[in-house]
Amino acid sequence: MPVAAAGTTGSGVLDVPADVDVAGWWRGGSRLGDPFGSIPVAAHVDSDAEGLGPFAELLTVRAGARLRLEADGLRQDFEVTSRRLVPQGSLVDDAWIYDAAGRLRLTLVTCAPPYEASRGGYQNLAVVTALPVGPPEAT
């Protein structure tokens, strides 16, 4: 799945690409090849027009699953260590999702059930954390 650089909206929310087939990497996070911090990548789980997107798989991914990230002439494999549900809203208390400090990790984020239209849509975020299996390699 392609990943495009993403900023934040005026209210501080990650400006995820509208296309469910494109993920957004937060420019403020760590990058592939960095020695530490979170590499935060987010995408929509679905859309009315496009149906389910690839990140829908995050709702059922299990620890041990392997992922590959490629960018800027590098690739690195990661292994899923956890999947957590975090309530939608401010992530101030969940800085581990996007913090550029700490152990290097890939952090994948998408919306998660329940979906309540009267309350603005999905009520949770699925946050999948994956750790590197080895060092980055040149592509």
UniProtKB/TrEMBL annotation:
Keywords, sorted A to Z: Hydrolase
Any Pfam family from its record, for instance, is Sortase
Coiled-coil regions in this chain? none
**Family annotation (Gene3D superfamilies):** Sortase
Domain of life assignment = Bacteria
Protein name (database record): Class F sortase
Source organism (scientific name): Nocardioides pinisoli
